[in-house]
Amino acid sequence: MVSIKIPFLDLAKVADSGQAFRIKVIDDSHIELVAYGRYLQVAKTGKDTFAFSCTEEEFNTIWKTYFDLDRDYKKIVKSIDKNDDYLLKASEFGYGIRILKQDIFETTISYIISQRRSIPSITTSVERISKLCGKKIKAPKLEEPFVAPLEKEYYAFPSPEELCKLPFSELENTGVGYRAPYIARAAEEFKTGKLSPDALAQLSDDDLYKALTAMYGVGTKVANCIMLFAFARTGRFPVDVWIQRIEDKYYNGHFDCTPYPETAGIMQQFMFYYERRKDTLIS
After folding, report:
1. Residue 190 falls within a domain, yes or no?
2. 86 within domain boundaries
3. Which of 42, 186, 208, 221 has its CA at a distance of 20 to 30 angstroms from the CA of residue 227?
4. Is this prediction's pTM over 0.90?
5. pLDDT tens, position by position, 226-243
6. Do residues 70 and 64 make contact, with C-beta atoms less than 8 angstroms apart?
7. CA dist 237 to 11, 69, 116, 168, 256, Å?
8. Do residues 265 and 247 make contact, with C-beta atoms less than 8 angstroms apart?
9. pLDDT digits (tens, 9 = 90+) for 246-267
10. Which helix (H) or strand (E) holds 244?
11. Domains in the chain: how many in total?
């Protein structure tokens, strides 16, 4: 177990922010997730204090980066234009949301699946694919401050090789619809090395964007989401129906990212979460 003080982290908001599709809220102070082939539970143990159900080595090599813990989000919030009432309200409402740095292959496939779909339906397809061809992960036995996992077993998201072995008809039956050929092509390109996570990570933003949009079935929005959530390119600003609605209503059709060259994607998450949840009891 690792216990650490983390300012600016709200577990429920991160789970509900729409970045990742395999994070679940267990109760008011616990979330669980499957990522990088591992199960993790995080418990809130006090004001800005959290416990992670992993070794210190695993925390330092995976989860510290995954939760973007080296970034000063309070400083980022202070950089918001004081005349931008909407973004100020969104950042206050979204206090505690951090940008997750997820597995490149899983994120690519997940956001290919995401096109014109709701978060619950994306989650369903991702879980089905994982159960069909991902490695089984037995739920760990945890002691306080953790609680019992929600399931007895979990499944890692498949590797490109594992996904390529899934018959196309079974892939179609996961609910991905017309996106099945896009997924199959992407898995094949990652398997053969035509697309290499390490090589992609070395590219500039412009070249990475070109490489992603050159993929079969990947457009502007999906490419920017992959860049933001898998490559930590936090200057990217994905525009979906929610963000377009915000731009039309509050920014005369266009949000100016110029003041936020390295943090526009973080602002996007505040805006996205606020617009989806401001009329609910979540705060």
Report:
1. yes
2. no
3. 42
4. yes
5. 999 999 999 999 999 999
6. yes
7. 23, 21, 18, 33, 10
8. no
9. 999 999 999 999 999 999 999 9
10. helix 241-250
11. 1
